[in-house]
From TrEMBL:
One of its GO terms (molecular function) is ATP diphosphatase activity. Pfam families: MazG (PF03819). Signal peptide: none annotated. NCBIfam families: mazG (TIGR00444), PRK09562.1 (NF007113). GO terms for biological process: dATP catabolic process; dGTP catabolic process; dTTP catabolic process; dUTP catabolic process; response to stress; TTP catabolic process; UTP catabolic process. It comes from Paracoccus denitrificans (strain Pd 1222). It is an enzyme of class 3 (hydrolase). The lineage of its organism: Bacteria, Pseudomonadati, Pseudomonadota, Alphaproteobacteria, Rhodobacterales. Its EC number is 3.6.1.8. This is Nucleoside triphosphate pyrophosphohydrolase. Coiled coil: none annotated.
Length: 283
């Protein structure tokens, strides 16, 4: 869209926002955000925000959608998806104010992309292909898109804002496509032993920056092992977090039955209760 501000009268955003008859329409949500961002009558907090300040909320809302799915909290999912949609609308509103693009451009962009990336559905290509072939075709299309953006490096275009473990896997996948990869899990396990030894050596020094670097190296190789084992490291860690939470709550419940709290216990007792919870899960 052009960067010049439109000359036609602005819509009555508050009136649209209060239109309960249009409660499911996207126009109402767009009007709500426009009203919140109105320089004269909007919400002071919303007016002060910019792309950088809102980005962490966008990431947080995406994680909350994933959390609802993992917990199978289907009654919460629509609300969480709404929170995530609000983030898209927020960014689009700020972009429109800056004369960059608007929500319609966002919708048009993703619609065009989906059509372009599915020529076997919307074009002349045969639909008779395996899922694996579709993945290869998808990657070829994305490679052409990156070339059109002048992204010439193998690692260009891997988003900096991704969770670190996810980005590590994506970087490694890109490198693997051009042959820069370990032959299999055995070699990665050997590398983990090496990196663990280097981390132990770094621990003996007083150089915290070096210790952080070695810890990062170990995490990066762990992500590589997950990739070779076809495990999503983010999902694996989420499951480990959930297991820890579940078992620690069992410790709290056992102590509460005695009228006590964790701070009234000691490590030996809590470790024994942990093992009881672990055994109960496996029974």
């Amino acid at each position: 869209m052009a960067k010049d501000k439109p000359t036609h009268p602005a819509p009555d955003h508050p009136a649209l926002a209060r239109n309960a008859a249009d409660r499911t329409g996207i126009r109402r949500l767009l009007a709500i955000m426009a009203a919140l961002r109105d320089p004269q009558s909007g919400c002071p907090w919303d007016i002060e925000q910019d792309f950088a300040s809102i980005a962490p909320y966008t990431i947080e809302e995406a994680h909350e959608v994933a959390d609802a799915i993992v917990r199978e909290a289907w009654d919460e999912l629509s609300g969480e998806l709404g929170d995530l949609l609000l983030q898209v609308v927020f960014h689009a509103q700020m972009a429109e104010e800056a004369g960059m693009f608007d929500f319609a451009d966002v919708v048009a962009s993703i619609s065009d992309k989906m059509i372009d990336r599915h020529p076997h559905i919307f074009g002349d290509e045969s639909r008779d292909k395996s899922a694996a072939q579709q993945i290869r075709d998808w990657e070829a299309i994305k490679a052409r898109e990156r070339a059109a953006k002048a992204e010439k490096g193998v690692l260009d275009g891997v988003a900096l804002g991704l969770p670190a473990l996810t980005r590590a896997v994506k970087l490694q996948n890109r490198a693997a496509r051009v042959g820069f990869d370990w032959p299999g899990p055995a070699e990665v396990l050997d590398k983990i032993v090496e990196e663990t030894r280097e981390l132990a050596e770094a621990r003996e020094s007083a150089d915290h920056a070096h210790l952080t670097e070695e810890f990062g190296d170990l995490m990066f190789v762990m992500a590589n092992l997950a990739r070779h084992l076809e495990i999503d490291p983010e999902e694996a860690l989420r499951l480990a977090n959930a297991k820890f939470t579940r078992r620690f709550r069992s410790i709290e419940a056992a102590l509460a039955a005695q009228g006590r709290r964790p701070e009234d216990s000691d490590l030996a007792e809590m470790d024994a209760l942990w093992n009881e919870a672990k055994a109960a899960e496996r029974a």
